[in-house]
Structure formats: C-alpha cells, structure tokens
TrEMBL record:
Keywords for the protein's UniProt record, in alphabetical order: ATP-binding, Nucleotide-binding
UniProt name for this protein: ATP-binding protein
Gene3D superfamilies per the UniProt record, alphabetical: Histidine kinase-like ATPase, C-terminal domain
UniProt key word Transcription regulation: no
InterPro entries: HATPase_C_sf (IPR036890), HATPase_dom (IPR003594), His_kinase_dom (IPR005467), Sig_transdc_His_kin-like_C (IPR004358)
Amino acid sequence: MTVRARADGFSVTDDGPGLPADIAGSLFDGNFDADGLGLGLLIVERVVSGHGWDGQVDVENGTQFTFTGVGNAANTVQQSPVTTPANGDS
C-alpha cells in the first residue's frame, strides 16, 4: 500500500489483486458489503463527504483511491510515499 500527496489531495494505492471492476461504482454506497469491506469504506465515504472532498476509485491495475479537494495537501504531507509491508505487518 502506498500513500502519495498530490497538489489537490492524496491517493492510496494497493498494487495487489485489486477489486472487481463491477463493484467499483458501489464501493462508497452505504449498502455495499463484500467480505467485510463495507463498513470501512462507508467510514471513508463519510469522512470524505464531511470534509467536502471528492473521492474516486480506479480498479484497473490493483486498486487506487484518489481524494481531491483536500487543499494544499502536498505541502502538509511528507513527499515520499509511505509503504506498508505486503503481509500487513507494521
């Protein structure tokens, strides 16, 4: 998982197997649930909406969530990507 600052927000990328393209449009729907993903994504949607940000998901090569409208995030976030181990250990 990699987090990158952008001029207008940030992106979170997971280069693993990704999510099926047919569910991409429903990910932030309050009724969405696939293997326990629903509640976490609903919380993300509420944070994004509550701050007036915009969120998009791209599932073509892994999964990438991009959040814009955040302000000048590139000046407030460390410029190098933050990467977590593939096995989830911290």
